[in-house]
Amino acid sequence: MIFDPIQQIKSFIACFLFFGTSAAFADLIEVAGLGRVNQTSEWNGGQFPAGNAIDGNSSTFSHTDTTTPNNRWEVLLDQEYEVARIEVEMRGDCCAGRMTGTIVRGFDGTESSVFSAELSDPGIGGTVIFEVPMGVKMERVRVGFEDGGTNPRASTTMIHLGEVRVFAQREALVAIESFAASPGEVSAGQEVSLNWTTIGADEVRL
Predict the structure, then answer these.
(1) Which range is least confidently modeled, 8-12, 15-19, 118-122, 200-204?
(2) Where in the chain does DSSP place strands (E)?
């Protein structure tokens, strides 16, 4: 019988990746860019979409309209992560102070709020850093107004963000980075050579 062993063996190995204990959560990776984003409303028909806040380009920004109650921006991560830090960068062209009073909130995979902090706008192009207590897992991060909040000294509710970065513990990313079997097709009883690299695992057991 001829079969392709790569996917079967790769799936088997994935079940036996083990963490080491020496990393001490020192290695972080940015995960907002892996997620899906949305915002409650759009400025000028979508001129500044939610995705601008995770494109890695500080010269772009997201922007909602000015009147929708409790306007917010959010990212749904591709999985639940143990989050260590959230960074919110202001737009770099204007409007200092406008984001003061917004709430940064994280939700876990059950939609329970597990982290919240009020943002104080640091000014044009500035970045606010929120350190998250160890062990807090999030699947969704939101930046926006709550309970009828408005922009300072105004009745508007616009949210505009330069970049939002979510940093997760590297250990949350245990995965097979590359895998190869040679030859690619084998007959029953034939020897096969396996090679792989992993992310976040110190040991692989077959």
Answers:
(1) 15-19
(2) 2-3, 17-18, 28-30, 36-39, 62-63, 72-89, 103-107, 113-118, 127-131, 137-144, 160-161, 163-169, 175-182, 186-187, 193-199, 203-204
